[in-house]
Amino acid sequence: MFEHFTAPARRVVVIAQDEARGLGHEYIGTEHVLLGVAAQEDQCAAYLLAQRGLTEVRVRGEIERIVGRGDPASVDPRIDPVALATLGIDLEEVRRRVETTFGPGALARRSGCRRDREHGQLPFTPNAKKSLELALREARALGHDHISPQHIVLGLLRSNGVARHILTDHGVDPAVFRSLVFKPDRRAG
């Protein structure tokens, strides 16, 4: 499927992985994919999201509000949980919020060692994978042979996950978004 991604769409995935890691998450969820779209301010999809107030900073803030930050110790063993507690960061509360959103054991190690996740690729959640499949379906339904960040937003709007909640909470409607981005060809014929 990734062979159909445009360069900006591939960049969405790279940014999503970096942002997930930066938030201390050991997975790439729909919320990280949305953040990857919003981070590319020079792209049409990011511009339209910003029209609804969904800038990179705002999306990151929404992720932290809804999901929280992951267990920093799982990403970087040099971080001391006791020291974080003195700063008011309760790692158990973070774990509880993630498990409430993503289910029990969401932070459990799925496969590979910590070092691989720190330096390699993080796994996509089932909802994130589904959103990318739906982006491909959106592209095909529109007669496109490529997947752009705009198609990714449409896929996020059709999938379940944190990104859909963020988008709909900010008034992003799939039909309106589709009509703004993919206007029909109006050439005289």
Structure notes:
This protein is mostly helical. It has one domain (2-181): Clp, N-terminal domain (Double Clp-N motif, Orthogonal Bundle), CATH 1.10.1780.10. Helix content is 60%, strand content 0%. It is built from twelve helices and no strands. α1 (7-22) packs across α2 (30-38), α9 (126-141) packs across α10 and α10 (149-158) packs antiparallel against α12 (174-181). The radius of gyration is 17 Å and the shape is globular. The two termini are 35 Å apart. 37% of the residues are buried. Residues 75-79, 109-117 and 185-189 have low confidence and may be disordered.
Notable characteristics:
189 residues, mainly alpha, Double Clp-N motif, 12 helices, 60% helix
Quick overview:
The chain is mainly alpha-helical.
Total number of distinct structural domains: 1
Helix fraction, binned, reads: 55-70%
**Major beta sheet, specifics?**
none
The total of helices stands at: 12
Give the structural class.
Answer: mainly alpha
Low-confidence stretches: 75-79, 109-117, 185-189
Tell me the Rg in angstroms.
17 Å
> What is the CATH superfamily classification?
Clp, N-terminal domain
CATH class designation: Mainly Alpha
**Distance linking N and C termini:** 35 Å
Fraction of residues in β-strands: under 5%
Q: Using DSSP, what is the number of strands?
A: 0
Order of helices and strands: HHHHHHHHHHHH
Give the overall silhouette.
Answer: globular
CATH topology: Double Clp-N motif
CATH architecture: Orthogonal Bundle
The whole-number mean of residue pLDDT values reads 81
